[in-house]
Batch of 4 targets.
Target 1
Amino acid sequence: MHLLLLTGMSGSGKSTAFKFLEDMGYYCVDNLPIPLFKSFVDLTAKNMPKGQKVAVGIDIRSEGHLERIADILNELDRDGKKVDVLFLDADDETLLKRYKETRRNHPLSGSERLSAGIARERGALSYLRYRADYIIDTSHLLTRELKTEMERILVEDSDYKSMMVTLLSFGFKYGIPKDADLVFDVRFLPNPYYVVSLRPKTGNDPEIQEYVMNCPEAHVFLDKLTDMVQFLIDNYIKEGRNQLVVCIGCTGGKHRSITLTNQLYDRLKKNKNYGIRKEHRDIDKDRARGK
């Protein structure tokens, strides 16, 4: 029997994740009282078919018994019953936004502000996050991207390192992304904006890609950037980080930055030790302004 404990921050996507687990063939039980957890594992081990996958959800609703989870997991390990822990997380700003959009109350906020409830929950779940075998930060993930990450962990059985890399193109005139970890400036490359026939197109179009990559410096930069970003990702994984936002900017975020972001994505996506996604933040802003 393969037993998975699904837990994490309220608002991080656990309900959606449970639906994906059911689609993957897991027998799912959500919000199981922690005092019943070991008995449930013992019973399912005896009565479930061999090879059955079982997922149990535990979250802050079990707050009064969370301190017991460490002893229970250790006891199950001693009994030879391995429990994998999948922890879903998101940054505080994202959680606040999600709660405001849904107009739901945080289970621990009571009459206090949402931020107080989120902070209290982080403290209560700190052991489970530390104990987790897999951590998925859903702050920047679309629903389909969460599904892809879960399949990579649980179906493809990849050597998962709990790292999600976001490659983000942007325009400096619209501001540097607030969540940037690494920022690279490609305004030194020739600008297709000054070629009238190319101006309406974007870095997703072959004509722009050819124009930008026809510059020898673009290839030198891309080679050096790939080596450095790959080096940093490998070492961030060792450090235990689970998210990295790499931003590539040009003036308007429409031509050069998109081209280089796409090129870097194509090079890094072959590595299976981390998840990777790309996003073009400002691709339509000039168009909206009639430029």
Target 2
Amino acid sequence: MTNPAAELRDRALAFRSLHVPGRPLILPNAWDAASARLVEDAGAAAVATTSAGVAWVLGAADGEGLDRGRALRAVTQIAGAVRVPVTADIESGYAQDPAGVGDTVRAVLAAGAVGVNIEDAPHGTGGGPLRPAGEQAERIAAARAAADGAGVPLFVNARVDTFLCGAGGVDDTVERAAAYLAAGADGIFVPGTVDPGTVKELAGRIDAPLNVMAGPGAPPAAELAALGVARVSVGSGIAQAAHALVRRAARELLDDGTYDAQAGGLAYGTLNALMAEAR
């Protein structure tokens, strides 16, 4: 007889163990059950969601254009489709205050995910590009307390948007990272830079697994590993590439009446079989 709570704790522990500086966890981000199954089938040790990809496929804009309920239903579908651990991009927490962030984390656990990304760039508040570090630390502490209260060692990946928002450099990033780690974060995610010198300095000065966001033009994962990175993700990059194919194929069909952009697609039987095997 299975024990869902024990299984969730085991997946959370397994996910934590994958964050090794110099031997990074590679995460091709997914946005629905089918993309998650494809990522798992390709050999990924875990699946990370992309908030942008999830929002787009559900007909909303990124930046908390989705409410918590719709966003977490997508996480439930993704976690239910794969056997590997799932970590959820919950943007800035889908909540106005720390208590609400705690509620979101409890919903994440109920959805079957064992990790979260929480960013310090607020959405729709009319404030600055980043929340004050102390205020963000309170939100991270609420996430930590909610997970601890549920008895699940949730991996809290605190996103620092200094580089992404042009709101600071290495020193500012390290200062924020320290505050978030003291509040209970387990890892630090710094999107917006893949400059080798910057990444190496961040990895050396942040006392936690460092996650960077890569894409076309970034150093290969092996080079990022050598710089001390513990996690490499691609955000909405794969979703953007998939949607670009939709537009190319649609325009070709409508403008030229031809079908070349569809060449190389997955066989119907292959994709159908993958989904039939979803847990």
Target 3
Amino acid sequence: MSKLNQEVLKLLSKQDFLSGQKMATELGISRTAVWKAVKSLREEGYTVESVTNKGYKLVAASSELNETLLTSMVKDSSLFSEVIYKDSVDSTQKLAFGKITDIKEPFIVVAGEQTEGRGRFNREWASPEKRGLYMSAVFKPDIYLNEIIKFNLFISLAIANAIEKSFNLDAGIKWPNDIYINGRKVCGFLTEVISENNMIQSIICGIGLNLYHTEDISKLETATSIEDELKLDDKKDLDMESFLKQLIIDLEKQYDQFINMPFSSIREEWISKSIIFGKEMRISEMNRTFMAKPVDITDEGFLLAVDRYGETHKIISADIEF
């Protein structure tokens, strides 16, 4: 049905009013099939007007994530081969891991909700139904394992840029995997790999973005959503189609740069979007926690931080908090 939905949506996007019979003839299907496709599009959040003797008219695109929209986005992608959409899953990461051997090219998994969403360090990531973007993007590089540190930097820039271009909001990066707006977290991503002999075969990048306001967000002073930052009166004002297009474009661009260019090629841009430099932060590594101010980042992606005693630390993997 998703393919038929796309075809009907494509026809509606080109016309003012279009009769069910004309669509049925052009697509080689019955008028009943057209009616069912229109009904399905409405259920996915599209506003389709119907007028006797005139036909159907697309009034507004969907503000919700849905299979038709996602499949259409990936169809035009130069990187991702397909998208798997589920109304509900335990975790998009788990589903993505289970499909890696079956799907040879890069692909995307998206869910309407997650019942066991998780972030870095196995923390819970609240994923209520139709309130956020819950997505795992699978990449298939052939790179050394230590390159994964730089991957996070390129991807964080892609997400921040997509948010800024789509919603005109200033998005800042908190090293290594968080995106903030106005000092509050709006997005986090989790990077996991499948490797052999020190070489990475697959990168599974789980992205969790707060799109709409929830009770959980209202309880946390450190969290926010796109809806909250835009101060929308109606969630339909959020242009989901434009955002998804932009996100895929930026993921493709930054991934291509990651594969073909050094981190130094984006270092200054990344630093300009960072929100951590010059601020004292709690840095928690595997065996210690200390206070220090991040002051720079190396071309290898390591964070340099100076503690209260003037000692400089090279941070490879850690949790940092304001």
Target 4
Amino acid sequence: MFKNLMLYRLGPEWPASAAQWEEALATEPFVECSATQQKSTGWVPPRGQEHGALVETVDGQWIARFAIETKAVPADAVRARTQKAVEEIEKTTGRKPGKKELRDLKDDALIALLPQAFPRRSQVTVWIDPSARLLVLDAGAQGKADEVITSLVRVAGKGFAVGLLQTQRSPQAAMAAWLAAESADEMPGALHVERECELKGSGDEPAVVKFTRHDLATDEVRQHIKEGKLPTKLALGWQGRVGFMLTQALQLKKIAFQEGVFEEGAAAKGDDRFDADVALSTGELSGLINDLIDALGGEVEATAVTDQAPAAPPPAKPAAPHPATAADDDGPPF
């Protein structure tokens, strides 16, 4: 259900209910890219059922899903078609196109080729814990998270406020202390260091050291920390139930539930399986998030990304594509 987590705190006003969130998301439903459109975003039913609800309530948790569809045309194809048009103009008129005309020719080439491009779609699962005012995005890249937050700003209107979850101790400082520790007793009780990390030095060309499937409780690792290299990510385990990679930006990646955690929902099918997966995964991850915050010294007040955003109409679809020829893709589809 969840592979990555980005954590935000919501303000006290919006959404007041799952129904209010549903009504807001319905103003930006997902529509597939048109023939000459490079990108389309919007909200889809999280159960995957056509015309289904855009917000599902399971065990007190609210779940939605945001879709991002892009179409990319190879740059070589655009250049080849543009060059052909340039040669035709030179042949028929005896002149070379100017800079503005050349840009227009590139745009025309892209528009002509877009209907042949295959769309790629990815989805971001969005989880709200209403009692904790916690907003969680299953996004592996900041660009996807920004797309979701931007949509929420548009649809929510006045009363919406959200900020990144921040802790008293930075993840990087905590990870460095855990790796430098000489004893397992210095680790937080609920967490333990696994066998993967990345250390990065300072300077214009910083040294980077990666450990994979390697014991990290060694003098070699501690020496790197003493020399000033700091962890940018560290594999951790939580209570023997969930493994994950913690980053310096307080993102949780490569989330993996250990064997046996989902046994209760393994026999369920269809809607029952969806409900079971949501209930079990959010239940486990809520405990992990709380213990991680405690291990980082507790939470500080969030820095607002947006506060009382004004009402806005649904996003306008681009009339003509940007001349870029490759879609931004930050990972495989969800």
